[in-house]
């Protein structure tokens, strides 16, 4: 990016937006990002905040008429170079995130998003729009938060991915680990919710939609073109009252012919068998290295903020 001063706008100032704001401010110096500033924040609860101070979060106050904010108009008029889209996930039509992303890309901004809804549903269209407008669209946070996932392949030039397989949802992996230890399904789900792993609507976790969205995103990224509705999705409810609960993982898989999410019973020889609790993991079957596996957190405030920071540094370094 050639501009000396880079302005970043944040859309959505919930857990991810605030986490990113804090992480950016705390790492700015060590990353030599002194020419980069967060120039505005838009949130239906907190309003339109221009040139926020570093101590913003401790002084945040809800506004009265937030629902009247015209986010698309703000994006249109914004002089930001990069828009970070952190609004809520919607797997039905991707709104409002998808409209925010389209507006940003067509009004001269690069986009960073952690929002799985628009990307699982519309990645190919949005990538085309970004390319047509000469903009970057960065989506690291949509798969395994800041833990290296699909971007690991940037370190392996020329290597071809034949298939990808993994544990892409922390909530269900946490529940399945608890079931394996003989505990109760509902109690484990409640615990996952209280620890903040589960989605606002835990159906998206338990019934496999969150993992399915990540499989759709991976399929698109590797050129296999399965969108969200093409992914065969089965969640973990069938294990709730099952007597056989040992060794199950909610496995997501994609290759050029297939894309699915379903509970699979693994044995100890499988690396993924050993990925327990809220941890996620991804395995690439490659032509040059065979199987490459990465494991780490797939959710959380700082963990997801790390993904957006990775994307920001990547765009600025271009
Ligand atoms: N609810 C998700 C999970 C969050 O449990 O993994 C990250 O997508």
Explain this structure to me?
With 318 residues, this protein is of the alpha/beta class. Helices cover 32% and strands 21% of the residues. A six-stranded mixed β-sheet has the order 3-2-1-4-5-6, sandwiched between helices. Strands 8-10-9-7-11-12 form a six-stranded mixed β-sheet, covered by helices on one side. Helix 4 links the parallel strand 5 and strand 6. Helix 2 runs parallel beside helix 3, helix 3 runs parallel beside helix 4 and helix 5 packs across helix 6. It is globular, with a radius of gyration of 20 Å. The mean pLDDT is 95. The structure holds L-homoserine. L-homoserine (HSE) binds next to helix 5.
Key attributes of the depicted protein:
globular, 9 helices, alpha/beta, 21% strand, 318 residues, Dihydrodipicolinate Reductase, domain 2, 2 domains, single chain, Rossmann fold
Topology (elements, then pairings):
Layout: E1 6-11, H1 15-27, E2 36-43, E3 47-50, H2 71-77, E4 82-85, H3 97-106, E5 110-113, H4 116-132, E6 137-138, E7 161-167, H5 170-180, H6 185-194, H7 203-206, H8 209-221, E8 232-233, E9 248-255, E10 259-265, E11 280-286, E12 290-296, H9 301-316
Parallel strand pairs: 1-2, 1-4, 4-5, 5-6, 8-10
Antiparallel strand pairs: 2-3, 7-9, 7-11, 9-10, 11-12
Helix pairs in contact: 1-9, 2-3, 3-4, 4-8, 5-6
The structure holds L-homoserine.
L-homoserine (HSE) binds at residues 169-171, 197-199, 205, 210, 298-299.
């Amino acid at each position: 990016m050639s501009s000396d001063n880079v302005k970043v706008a944040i859309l959505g100032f919930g857990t991810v937006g605030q986490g990113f704001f804090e992480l950016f401010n705390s790492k700015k110096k060590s990353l030599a990002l002194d020419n980069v500033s967060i120039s505005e924040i838009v949130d239906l609860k907190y309003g339109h905040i221009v040139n926020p101070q570093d101590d913003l979060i401790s002084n945040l106050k809800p506004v009265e008429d937030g629902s009247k904010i015209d986010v698309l108009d703000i994006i249109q008029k914004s002089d930001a170079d990069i828009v970070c889209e952190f609004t809520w996930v919607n797997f039905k039509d991707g709104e409002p995130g998808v409209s925010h992303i389209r507006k940003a890309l067509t009004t001269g901004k690069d986009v960073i998003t952690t929002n799985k809804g628009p990307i699982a549903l519309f990645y190919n269209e949005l990538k085309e729009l970004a390319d047509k407008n000469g903009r970057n669209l960065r989506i690291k946070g949509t798969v395994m938060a800041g833990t290296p996932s699909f971007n690991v392949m940037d370190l392996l030039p020329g290597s071809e991915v034949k298939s990808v397989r993994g544990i892409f949802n922390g909530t269900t992996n946490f529940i399945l680990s608890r079931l394996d230890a003989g505990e109760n399904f509902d109690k484990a789900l409640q615990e996952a919710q209280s620890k903040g792993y589960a989605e606002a609507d835990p159906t998206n976790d338990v019934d496999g939609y969150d993992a399915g969205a990540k499989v759709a995103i991976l399929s698109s990224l590797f050129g296999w073109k399965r969108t969200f509705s093409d992914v065969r999705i089965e969640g973990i409810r069938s294990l709730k009252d099952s007597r056989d609960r040992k060794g199950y993982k909610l496995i997501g898989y994609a290759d050029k012919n297939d894309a699915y999410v379903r509970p699979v019973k693994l044995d100890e020889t499988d690396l993924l068998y050993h990925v327990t609790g809220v941890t996620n993991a991804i395995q690439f079957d490659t032509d040059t290295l065979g199987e490459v596996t990465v494991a780490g957190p797939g959710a959380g405030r700082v963990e997801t903020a790390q993904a957006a920071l990775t994307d920001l540094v990547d765009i600025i370094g271009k």
